[in-house]
């Protein structure tokens, strides 16, 4: 990794709803109608404007498929936008989970490029209720974001927001490797 790429990438431990990034990335589900985990926290903190826009997207394109991403307002969040991506449910690893998880990162970054978003903060997609093994998920997240930053100017900065100590350690390891 070049120095210019590593300086555009960091790990922060805490609540993603408090982060003043240009966009934060939500671990949503295909309905786009909200749920528990980070999704629930984002809708609670951001208020009803986010769900309103999710409903409009649903009406237009029928939700969001696994591996894809859509963008809405951040409502009352410090972040301007929320990118909603739908991670794969872990099902043993031979059902295309790694490719789908990688697609979540790439498709979210593609939205950031399209809109020239300065900074994007990712939650650890699929590593909660969806049960993706955390070390493997961290390795995929770091690999995809590094590859993207090495070849694209936007977003200018990416933050991995980890909630728990275990993920913090795993991301630090993945970034050091
Ligand atoms: N800030 C940052 N990270 C968080 C926060 C927070 N406030 N809260 C939880 N995490 P999950 P998934 C971490 O379960 O596995 C929802 O119901 C958490 O520790 O939120 O992709 C959706 O509607 C974990 O590492 O998402 C879907 O139905 C990570 O966020 C389903 O869950 C992701 O955990 C998606 O499951």
TrEMBL record:
Domain Macro, first and last residues per copy: 1-177
CDD domains according to UniProt: Macro_OAADPr_deacetylase
InterPro entries the UniProt entry points to: Macro_dom (IPR002589), Macro_dom-like (IPR043472)
Xref: SUPFAM superfamilies: Macro domain-like (SSF52949)
PROSITE patterns: MACRO
Pfam families xrefs: Macro
Protein origin, superkingdom: Bacteria
Protein known as: O-acetyl-ADP-ribose deacetylase
Source lineage: Bacteria, Pseudomonadati, Bacteroidota, Cytophagia, Cytophagales
Gene: ymdB
